[in-house]
Amino acid sequence: MLSFFRVIAILEGISYLALFAVTMPLKYLADLPMPNKYVGYAHGALFIAYIILAVVLWMEKKWSLKKGIILLVASLLPFATFYVEKKYLNEDATLA
């Protein structure tokens, strides 16, 4: 389950960046709203999956309150899911 969460974390981060760096400029500068719609749907689904999996793993693995909050806040910040995946979700990282 941890490896699946790692994949979701990376995909959620990529979709977040694609939404803001690619499709929003297309929508507002080039008047092309459709890419934003579909990337927005994908990002929404990945965001929900990330939050649900973060909470499930937090409870299942009995991670600390600090780690749980870091996992949840990371979904709101650009690039943060990449940081969390590398620092907290890597098999070599300490899972305290």
UniProtKB/TrEMBL annotation:
The lineage of its organism: Bacteria, Pseudomonadati, Bacteroidota, Flavobacteriia, Flavobacteriales. The chain crosses the membrane at residues 7-26, 38-59, 68-84. This is Conserved hypothetical membrane protein. GO terms for cellular component: plasma membrane. Keywords: Cell membrane, Membrane, Transmembrane, Transmembrane helix. Residues 2-88 form the DUF3817 domain. It comes from the Bacteria. It is found in: Cell membrane. It is a multi-pass membrane protein. InterPro entries: DUF3817_TM.
